[in-house]
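Hi support team,

I've been running sequence recovery on a batch of backbones for a student project. Most finish fine, but this one hangs at about 90% for roughly twenty minutes before it completes. I'm not sure whether the input is malformed or the queue is just slow. I've pasted the structure tokens below so you can try to reproduce it. Let me know if you need the job ID as well.

Thanks,
M.K.
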């Protein structure tokens, strides 16, 4: 019989031959010729010993291959578990970052809204202050202008009286004097 290599070096799996050897041994015993007038069977000693010895040699190889397969399976499962754990951890981290971003965006929106409201309030306040300031200045200008108009009227009225008095002293005809209306303004067109 051929001697198979123990555990394949390239990692390929060979199906177990140990079971085939045991089956061959069972077939040899089952197919043995019965002895005449007896319940015993005649078995070829060399043939059965050869099968049993070959099975004995292959058992460690088969066990080694089985252990190798079990080890490979365990390593594969551990690798898959690690990868799964890494994927879950990554997903948890990403979800946490997304929640943080959402919270940051909400906080930024709230802060922006608050800043806009404060700016609008400050703007309204400043507008009212500017309007009050302008109103005060305009009221001051109005008072100055009113006083100036009053002084101009009084000055013109004095000029008109002085002009009338000097013409009357000169004997001028009062009819020939320019018209002064009742408000005290001189009308040059009259």
């Amino acid at each position: 019989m051929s001697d198979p290599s123990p555990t394949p070096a390239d990692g390929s799996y060979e199906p177990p031959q140990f079971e085939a050897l045991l089956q061959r041994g069972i077939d040899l015993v089952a197919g043995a010729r019965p002895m005449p007038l007896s319940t015993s069977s005649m078995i070829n000693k060399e043939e059965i010993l050869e099968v049993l010895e070959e099975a004995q040699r292959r058992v460690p190889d088969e066990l080694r291959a089985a252990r190798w397969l079990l080890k490979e399976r365990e390593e594969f499962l551990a690798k898959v578990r690690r990868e799964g754990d890494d994927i879950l951890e990554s997903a948890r981290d990403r979800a946490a970052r997304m929640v943080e971003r959402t919270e940051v965006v909400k906080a930024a929106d709230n802060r922006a809204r608050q800043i806009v409201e404060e700016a609008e309030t400050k703007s309204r306040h400043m507008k009212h202050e500017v309007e009050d300031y302008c109103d005060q200045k305009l009221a001051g200008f109005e008072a100055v202008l009113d006083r100036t108009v009053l002084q101009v009227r009084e000055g013109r009225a004095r000029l008109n009286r002085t002009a009338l008095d000097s013409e009357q002293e000169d004997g001028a005809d009062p009819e020939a004097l320019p018209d002064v209306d009742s408000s005290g303004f001189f009308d040059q067109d009259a």
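--
Follow-up from support: It reproduced on our side and the slowdown came from queue contention, not your input. The two ends are 153 Å apart (CA to CA). No action needed from you.
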